[in-house]
């Protein structure tokens, strides 16, 4: 059985997470455990879906139906990360501004979506991981 289709997105998520943690820690000048989650460079979601699309392209070819499905899923995830989730983050900023810090209302997470650069870097991580898995 070929486990590469299972381990590739996991490794893409893991590698993107290491990069994101390292970049956030360097920016914050301390370990950035509190910044782990949605948003940031690179996009974990983009890395995951692009790794699968790339692996299917390498193994099955660009004309295989599974590649079409994986590419469609990748587009949906990346469009969502760039538009809907960024808008949710903007709304959280406004809502958090309406309440004082002493309010009983918990503060909403403001960093939700991704910029195009963060998505592009996620794609690069995903394709690099898929290439590595495919070659080795």
From TrEMBL:
Matching InterPro entries: DUF212
Pfam families listed in its UniProt record: DUF212
Keywords linked to the UniProt accession: Membrane, Transmembrane, Transmembrane helix
TM spans (from-to): 6-23, 35-58, 64-81, 117-135
Entry keyword Methyltransferase: no
Top-level taxon of the source organism: Bacteria
Official protein name in the record: Divergent PAP2 family protein
Organism field: Trichloromonas acetexigens
Organism ancestry: Bacteria, Pseudomonadati, Thermodesulfobacteriota, Desulfuromonadia, Desulfuromonadales
């Amino acid at each position: 059985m070929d486990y590469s289709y299972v381990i590739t997105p996991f490794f893409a998520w893991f590698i993107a997470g290491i990069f994101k943690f390292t970049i956030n820690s360097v920016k914050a000048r301390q370990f950035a455990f509190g910044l782990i989650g949605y948003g940031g460079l690179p996009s974990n979601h983009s890395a995951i879906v692009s790794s699968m699309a790339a692996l299917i392209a390498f193994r099955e070819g660009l004309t295989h139906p599974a590649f079409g499905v994986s590419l469609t899923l990748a587009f949906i995830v990346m469009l969502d990360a760039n538009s809907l989730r960024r808008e949710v983050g903007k709304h959280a900023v406004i809502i958090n501004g309406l309440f004082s810090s002493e309010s009983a209302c918990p503060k909403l997470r403001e960093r939700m979506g991704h910029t195009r650069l963060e998505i592009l870097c996620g794609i690069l991580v995903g394709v690099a991981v898929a290439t590595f898995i495919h070659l080795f």
